[in-house]
Write a structure and sequence with these properties.
- By secondary structure, this protein is an alpha+beta fold.
- The chain has 10 helices and 14 strands.
- The chain folds into 3 domains: 46 residues, Uridine Diphospho-n-acetylenolpyruvylglucosamine Reductase, domain 2 (2-Layer Sandwich); 111 residues, Uridine Diphospho-n-acetylenolpyruvylglucosamine Reductase, domain 3 (2-Layer Sandwich), CATH 3.30.465; 94 residues, Enolase-like, domain 1 (2-Layer Sandwich).
- β2, α2 and β3 form a beta-alpha-beta unit.
- The chain starts with a strand and ends with a helix.
């Protein structure tokens, strides 16, 4: 790990100002990905701006029939939130199955989205629910946020402050997980907004994406058998020691079917 300057700002405004002064500065949220990358010298920020003490960024509240969640809210707090459990049970269940206990008690919503790991769970929820990401500068539609492998629409120095998730009629998230890390080899979030269905996939490609054929089929008939025979193309899907592109394509259909089945229960 290379040397760096450590900062602990007292407000989100101060945090953004500190990072804005140096292009090599980085925000530190839960640190579950960034610190490991620094240890391996894959990331060498000149300054770390720790967001851990910013209570203004850690909250969950019911909002417009859905929920608004602060960027520094821990996964465990999302999972245990009564507001999330009532409005979007699938989102609470997703958060409760991220990583292990340490990750859930350290990792944050905003940190996960800003990092945009291709196998992370939250991106599927953002796309599946059509969420809106609020930053210190603007609001970003979930569909426009994830742009590539570890890449997002965030500008240098832009800080996620909260995420607003609309509540669907019904929803579910199912993933085929890596048994060691519990990252999604393929995860699918299905949300029914009363005839308009969104299907979001994580783990299969360079970043989370929506599956149009599945959405069309489930919008016409919300049932597992509506997608059972849809064959997903493997072009552009991830290929690694955990699964081939062809296997991931197969898993997209399987996980979508299981998510639709779970949403009906």
């Amino acid at each position: 790990m290379h040397a760096f300057q450590y900062h602990r700002p007292s407000s989100a405004k101060d945090a953004a100002s500190l990072v804005g002064k140096n292009s090599e500065s980085r925000f530190l949220a839960g640190g579950q990905s960034l610190v490991q990358a620094m240890k391996l010298r894959l990331s060498s920020p000149s300054d770390l701006v720790d967001l851990g003490s910013l209570k203004e960024l850690s909250f969950v509240k019911a909002s417009g029939g859905g929920v608004e969640i602060g960027a520094m809210t821990r996964h465990a707090d999302v999972a245990s939130s009564k507001d999330v459990q009532k409005a979007i049970p699938a989102l609470a269940a997703l958060a409760g199955n991220i990583g292990d206990r340490q990750v859930r008690n350290m990792g944050t919503l905003g940190g996960s989205l800003a990092n945009n790991d291709p196998a992370a769970d939250y991106p599927a929820a953002v796309l599946g629910l059509g969420a809106t990401i609020t930053t210190n500068k603007r609001k970003i539609e979930g569909d426009k946020f994830f742009t590539g492998l570890y890449e997002t629409a965030l500008e240098p120095g832009e800080l996620i402050t909260s995420v607003s998730f609309p509540a669907p009629k019904r929803a579910a998230y199912m993933k085929f997980k890596n048994p060691a890390s519990r990252f999604a080899i393929v995860g699918v979030f299905v949300a029914d907004f009363g005839g308009k269905v969104r299907v979001a996939v994580t783990g299969a490609g360079p970043c989370a994406f929506r599956q149009a054929d599945m959405e069309k089929a489930l919008s016409a008939k919300f049932a597992p058998d509506a997608v059972a025979n849809i064959k997903v193309k493997s072009d552009g899907l991830n290929n690694d020691l955990h699964a081939s592109p062809e296997y991931r394509a197969h898993l997209i259909t399987v996980m979508t079917k299981r998510a639709a089945e779970a949403a009906l229960k």
